[in-house]
Amino acid sequence: MNIPSVLRKRFEAALNGLVEEPAPYLEMIRSSQEPKFGDYQANMAMSLGKKLGKPPREVAQMIVDRLDVAEICTPPEIAGPGFINLTLKKEWLIETLTAAKSDRRTGVGTTESPRTILIDFSGPNVAKPMHVGHIRSTVIGNALAKMLRFYGHRVITDNHLGDWGTQFGMIIYGYRNFLSRESYLQNPLEELARLYRLVRQLMDYHKKVTALPEYQDKANFLKRKLDELERQPDQEGLDRDTEKSLKKERQRLESQIFAMLEEIQTVAEKIKSVVNDPVMVKLSQEHARIGEAVLEETSKLHHGDAENRRLWSEILVFCRQDIERIYNRLGITFDHSLGESFYNDMLPGLVTRLLEQGIARETEGAVGIFLPGREVPMLIRKKDGAFLYATTDLATIEYRVKTFQPDTVLYVVDFRQSLHFEQFFAAAGQMGYHVELIHVKFGTILGEDGTPFKTRSGDTVDLESLLDEAEKRACDIVTANDTEKTLSREQIEETAGRIGIGAMIYADLSQNRESDYVFSYDKMLAMNGNTATYLQYAYARVRSLFTKGAIDAAALRDDPSVEILLTKPVERELALQLLKFEETLELALRDYRPNLLAAYLYELANVYSSFFERCPVLKAESAVVRNSRLVLSDLTARILRQGLELLGIQTVEKM
Ligand code: ARG
After folding, report:
1. Ligand 1 centroid vs 192 CA: distance in angstroms?
2. Which domain-ending residue is among 42, 70, 88?
3. Which band of pLDDT confidence, cut at 50, 70 and 90, is reported for residue 403?
4. Which of 120-134, 347-361, 634-648 has the lowest mean pLDDT?
5. CATH number, domain with residue 71
6. Cα 189 to ligand 1 centre (Å)
7. Which residue range is the domain that position 178 belongs to?
8. How many whole angstroms from 528 Cα to the centroid of ligand 1?
9. Is there a single domain that holds both residue 61 and residue 209?
10. Binning pLDDT at 50, 70 and 90, where does residue 234 land?
11. Which atom from ligand 1 is nearest to the alpha carbon of 389?
12. 141 in a domain, yes or no?
């Protein structure tokens, strides 16, 4: 049941004849923020008043006179400047909940306008271990896929793997120069990861050695500027504004210098890590040209060099196994995993075609697409003939339109790629693709110090070790909670897995996706507060009620003689919250925001908790009341489970 949508239909009928285009006004029906304003509010009388040139209260009265909601609401009230307050009738709530009680989908319908939606998410650059940065796209994309599917859309998920980039040049170079056959045979993944790290360390070292003097020059330059500013004679007689702007300038320089010095220190430490290690010193001398050599290996791969292609496919098999293991732990699958390599052969033809059609032009030896309002073109072929990230995305959209005929494509990608997507969407428009393209962007995960989450040595944090740690901590919690030692070792591990992984997923999804958030195990695993652990606990608590009372929930659901009574105010509050699942889903999907679903579930758990405090269930005053409360409890549990499931989080029966 989507209550606002039911109300919208009634209001549409009332507005017909009053206004030509009722649609935008119907959007102004929303859930009330305070109980004294009823359950829902219709706020269109104010803007409609302006349009009709009538006082809003008068317009509100006109609407109410034409509105037929008699069996749904008590008589609508007009309040303040012209708000129409709607309070649902108890009988209607009961009737609607009774239908939901035995419904497989707890009364949640499907969208009236199903679309075909392709979701491009996760897309890690394989051949290097997945790191913390990958979790956001992966869990947000997965939740959106599940939510959209549940709401009746046709969803296609595609993991646009970065399986063709420089990182393969790095591994191939490592394979050729540093491979330990023995380790590779024993544990190929570990050996490949070692090669990747080694090559990266050497490349970094050479880059940093060149960069260090530049950084120092820059820092000195900034220091001189600051000195000059401070030595400026006679700053006394200056007016307030000049003084202020001088002060600002000084602060700006100071913080730039500080940042530069910090950077110099990290760079110096990285360099030291090589210099202090005789083996690394030797390697760095022997591989002084490593940066260029890696690019050559990549280029050979892209141009069809047989040996590099062979190595690439050999390595790719292991890389895919590696990420598959992580997806398994997160419980995520994809319909397709068409990586960048899949499109490689389409790129030359695409560029030629775009040139012929005049959509792309040569520019300083390269090829680019010039977009309105932008001076710099979006490059699709470099001077040296290499193709770019954007070229692949253009080939990909062409393929997707042809193969899947989507109405919408969602790209769940870090906000830092905003410019890329703006340009690429504009270019796709010039190519004549009018499919809806949306960049579902998200912010950064921060460490407790408020800067992007890194390890102590400044490296990216490996995703797998994060999952391990979350599970380990969850295991401690589960073990400590199991005071009566009723859980077996396997049960504890299984439960800890669901709780640990669930905590990480929920910590991400409960945030507005565009904000940054701080990664904290303690917060995400807290039993109280807006966490998966709290919701999983709420679910398990309801389930234990059924175990304790030896009640068959399914039988209760299907028993037509079981009545729902809403005797206490908190029962009514719970009933209303239970019926808001569908509208939440609709709202969350409008702008692709799983956090709205998370917030709804959290609120549901809170309302249930007050209900549970005030309304005895197993010890209710009569069998009728008891059954009614059991039905409300069962619906709560099912919605919690379904809602968490849509977020990609599993529940546990006991914890
Ligand atoms: N591999 C890319 C990265 O790690 C993300 C891919 C996103 N999808 C896309 N179609 N561009 O940055």
Report:
1. 22
2. 88
3. very high
4. 120-134
5. 3.30.1360.70
6. 23
7. 167-311
8. 36
9. no
10. low
11. 11
12. no
Q: Is the pLDDT assigned to residue 458 strictly greater than 90?
A: no
Count: domains in the chain: 3
Rg of the chain (C-alpha set) = 30
Q: Do residues 446 and 516 lie in contact, with contact meaning Cβ atoms separated by under 8 Å?
A: yes
**Does residue 511 belong to any structural domain of this protein?**
yes
- If you measure from the C-alpha of residue 417 to the centroid of ligand 1, how many angstroms do you get, rounded to a whole number? 9
120 belongs to a structural domain: no
Q: Is residue 420, in this structure, part of any structural domain at all?
A: no
Q: For residue 573, is pLDDT > 70?
A: yes
Of 122, 388, 417, the residue with max ligand 1 atoms within 8 A of its CB, to mutate for a pocket test, comes to: 417
Structure tokens given for 31: 């859930």
**Which pLDDT score is estimated for 236?**
66
pLDDT digits (tens, 9 = 90+) for 519-556: 999 999 998 899 999 999 999 999 999 999 999 999 99
Which pLDDT tens digit goes with each residue over 133-142? 899 999 999 9
Q: What's the order of all strands across the beta sheet hosting 436-442?
A: 154-158, 116-120, 408-414, 436-442
Question: Are 5 and 586 within 8 A, CB to CB?
Answer: yes
Q: Is the CB of 302 within 6 Å of ligand 1?
A: no
Which of 42, 59, 88 is the C-terminal boundary of a domain? 88
247-259, pLDDT tens digit by residue?
Answer: 888 899 999 999 8
CB of 466 within 6 A of ligand 1: the answer is: no
CB 393 less than 6 A from any atom of ligand 1: yes
Q: Is there an atom of ligand 1 within 6 Å of 120 CB?
A: yes
Alpha carbon of 466 to ligand 1 centroid (Å): 22
Dihedral Cα 169, 171, 177, 182, nearest 10 deg? -160
- 296 token code pair: 């050559």
CA distance 128 to 110: 40
CA of residue 308 to ligand 1 center, whole Å = 23
HSE-CB at 275 with a 13 A cutoff on CA atoms is 9
